[in-house]
């Protein structure tokens, strides 16, 4: 078992076109560090000095990680992490 | 009940229990039926408030033209208010919105400018801002950043809800402009210790997230993370399934965004039930299903409906 990370179209140039990759770690931070070892530069697109980038949303099993501890949010095998750019969506 | 005009009939919507979807007597779901507004959606509240505020500030004079990026409901509400108050309306509408919304806007006499499907409402916002810059006499109300949008909910939706459900523990609504969540959320948090304010956000197909770069991302100016206590991303499949459950279990014919909200509400309800906590969870039904019939959301198998909805802005 591992943690599945779903990658949005806009970042798939970092994953060789893969829609979904697998990683490991006990926190989101560790997971991103693990991914960065294989997908060079990916972490830098998600995170800056102050934490998650403003226009990046990350969901742990469909919940926004900003309400689950941010980069310190605990993750474990079997979880699904979804990365999406922040967009206006349609609810209006 | 009697009102002087259609505009005066905005708000005052019923709160109804959802006894069949509630997990038990101590964990209950309550639906605030915003489809019972004059044009059939929660957006009547924001439209009425934004126009009133612009009139008060002297931005809107007789015969003025209002411009707004909208995927539908706000445009329809503004079209009604514009008719009552004597304004012209131009809506910038993404091309991947349901046919009914377009037909309704045309019926109200609004002019429609179509923005590209890729990028969804992001593109509509961009196009509207460009048009506003070229036509300084047009009034861009701009629901994503207009404080009157959130204030409508702080002054009306929030008080109505708390009056009907003083024991409320959770409020769940769809996240778009964030006006509803910010307004109701602030109102409740000031008055109900420990109340949870939860956003349910539609997760669309990839087309809608088709930005050219991350810097083109968008967070509404009204959005203040500190008002929320949680935020769920809900897939089209889950939203559709829950929309049908509202119909089959409670007889409630709601729009697809309400299925999205129900999905988050049921997750919260399940946790409260498992933890043995009392919960009275209020969820906001933004509109009814009429405008989505042409999307095929209510017929055939869920897989078929999901396939038909791919790439559509359903909330």
Structural description of this entry:
The complex is a heterodimer of chains A (92) and B (315). Chain A is an alpha+beta fold. Chain A has a single domain, classed as Ubiquitin-like (UB roll) (Roll). In chain A, strands 2-1-7-5-6 form a 5-stranded mixed β-sheet, covered by helices on one side. Chain A has a two-stranded antiparallel sheet with strand order 3-4. In chain A, strand 3 and strand 4 form a beta hairpin. The radius of gyration of chain A is 12 Å and the shape is globular. Chain B has 9 helices and 10 strands. In chain B, 39% of the residues lie in helices and 17% in strands. Chain B folds into 2 domains: 182 residues, Rossmann fold (3-Layer(aba) Sandwich), CATH 3.40.50.1100; 98 residues, Rossmann fold (3-Layer(aba) Sandwich), CATH 3.40.50.1100. Chain B has 315 residues and is α/β, with parallel strands linked by helices. In chain B, strand 4, helix 3 and strand 5 form a beta-alpha-beta unit. In chain B, strands 1-2-10-7-8-9 form a 6-stranded mixed β-sheet. In chain B, helix 5 crosses helix 6, helix 7 packs across helix 8 and helix 7 crosses helix 9. The chains are: A alpha+beta (92), B alpha/beta (315). Chains A and B meet through strand 5, strand 6 and strand 7 of A and helix 4, strand 8 and strand 9 of B.
Q: Helix content range of the residues of chain A, please?
A: 10-25%
Describe the global form of chain B.
globular
Q: How many structural domains can be distinguished in the coordinates of chain A?
A: 1
Query: What is the distance, rounded to the nearest whole angstrom, between the alpha carbons of the first and last residues of chain B?
Result: 31 Å
According to DSSP, the number of beta strands of chain A is 7
CATH topology type of the largest domain in chain B: Rossmann fold
Return the domain count of chain B. Answer: 2
Strand content of chain A: 25-35%
